[in-house]
Amino acid sequence: SQKIEQNSEALNIQEGKTATLTCNYTNYSPAYLQWYRQDPGRGPVFLLLIRENEKEKRKERLKVTFDTTLKQSLFHITASQPADSATYLCALDAGLADKLIFGTGTRLQVFP
Amino acid sequence: DAGVIQSPRHEVTEMGQEVTLRCKPISGHNSLFWYRQTMMRGLELLIYFNNNVPIDDSGMPEDRFSAKMPNASFSTLKIQPSEPRDSAVYFCASSFSTGFNEQFFGPGTRLTVL
Questions:
Q1: For A41, which residue in chain B has the nearest alpha carbon?
Q2: What is the CA radius of gyration of chain B?
């Protein structure tokens, strides 16, 4: 069955550094992948979508890569700020219309 | 637009009671999703509807769970009878179905079954 793995432990980085989060998947070849941000007590919020034929996507300080050979996506936040502290979820197309399969998320903590 | 609306925001009930969670999707969206989130299992899709029709309910844990979407602006998720292991945060999300679109999540309902 499809399996998605994200860094299970929290990622702690210093303000101004680049945060890199990993999403690995197995037993599947998704047509696209999405990244969401979730703050405590709130629902996930969409950040970026990248398709299987795209290597990289950027949006302001965010960058996502998609390596279908390695079956991996990397999510980068450059010049990180304490306000970037949240849990980040990757979600893969499940091959059925709009269905997504979510990873368990990585908690990012940016300290001053 | 007010976004996806869920009610109640918090629900505390006793084991064996019926629980009904409600969702109003964003106007114009034609796909609706119910998720459950726990620390142990993360965000799990329970069921999703497209144009008010259930498309995939393979994530519904058992017969105690049921979901309906009587019209494009309202959906319910019912648990009867509830059990302590159903305690979780339940999210509703909606999207405009094109196969690639983002999902918009509601604030969630935190359910505690004692």
A1: B107
A2: 13
Contact flag B95-A98 (C-beta cutoff 8 Å)? yes
- Residue-wise pLDDT for A88-104, tens only, equals 999 998 877 788 999 99
Largest CA distance in chain B: 41
Instruction: Tell how many helices (H) and how many strands (E) occur in chain A.
Output: 0, 11
Q: Tell me whether residues B45 and A101 touch, CB distance under 8 A.
A: yes
Q: What is the 3-state secondary structure (H, E, C) of chain B?
A: CCCCEEECCEEEECCCCCEEEEEECCCCCCEEEEEEEECCCEEEEEEEEECCEEEECCCCCCCCEEEEEEECCEEEEEECCCCHHHCEEEEEEEECCCCCCCCEECCCEEEEEC
B20-64 confidence digits (pLDDT tens): 999 999 999 999 999 999 998 999 999 999 999 999 999 998 899
A82: enclosing H helix or E strand: none
Q: In this structure, what token pair is assigned to residue B51?
A: 């144009």
Contact B45 A100 (CB under 8 A): yes
Those residues of chain B whose CB sits closer than 8 Å to some CB in chain A are 4, 31, 33, 35, 41-45, 48, 50, 55-56, 91, 93, 95, 97, 99-108
Q: How many CB atoms lie within 10 A of CB A75?
A: 25
